[in-house]
Amino acid sequence: MPQLTDQGAIDEHEQAGTWMTPAEYGASRAAVWTAAVVLVTDVRGRILVQSVDYRADRLLPGGAVDAGEAPSAAAARELREELGVDGRYPRGLAVDWIPADTPGFPPEMRFPGEILHVYDGGTWTPDRIAAVRLPAQEITGIHFAEPADLPALMDPGDARRALSALRARINDSGTALLEDGRPTAPTALDRLGVLRTRRTPQHDPWRPGPVPEGRAVRDRSAWLFAPDGRVLLLVSRATGAAHLPPPTAGTTAGAAPLGYRDGEQGAHARAAARLAGLPPAADPECARLLATPEQVRELSDWGQAGDDELAAVHTARARLGLPAPTRTPPTELPEEGARW
Hints:
Layout: H1 12-16, H2 22-28, E1 33-41, E2 47-52, E3 62-64, H3 71-83, E4 92-98, E5 114-123, H4 126-130, E6 139-145, H5 150-153, H6 156-171, E7 176-179, E8 182-183, H7 188-192, E9 206-208, E10 217-225, E11 231-236, E12 242-243, E13 251-263, E14 266-278, E15 286-291, H8 293-298, H9 305-319, E16 331-332, E17 338-339
């Protein structure tokens, strides 16, 4: 930071250096706008977006920070004004720098760039969603969008920012720093583009125990636990789609049927086992990650039945004598495999 002076005269050496008057220093600083938005999901992991009467694309709820107003206070005020919902949103998911040359701003607006704060609005239940009350003007509707649909609904920068903020929430590693919607320090979820393709809905009811004899089995997958209580997750490098591995994905111990999703076209069977090791990756197009069971669920579209499955997963983890995992960003495993 340059040294400031309010003296009427300074010698030539100081003038040639970094000395500046307060007025000169103030004029040298960048001026930007400030805004705050809130990321809200429903129980299926879809993101709340709203339609407005002044532009065609969708927006996260929120808006400009008023002079002298804290960004978190602006977020709460905007949701109260736009959706009729009272709340506090102290947890920041992302802070984005939006450059001054971003397309879409009229030249006469003289857009100077913007610092935009994304806050976590949490998961809203159907009752809370039903309590939304829209104002007489500006907000014309809301709906919950599949994360992968955001690029088709929103301005490109807004869609990047919303997806980055959602991944930051799933990572639970603190506020992500973004530049034009892109993380400055991408995590595995960012690098693999998780949630950029539509998730496969699995809303069938959860049944504990093995699949009944005679019931058709459509597919088999497994909750494979590492020693720290996290589980193996597969992510397609081509599409970013995340899914549980087959029971044969690694060397296992203590395998047992966990339950199944009872679908019309057959059962989706789940097993649980301790993961003792992974062979070298047989499919280079698929990344192998360790994640908490909660993160697996948040990357899936399982609906309300996901709660029942998650409870069964934690029961199986305890039966295997493994700890409850600490929530950290999902970790990509090496292609050469691993042993524990």
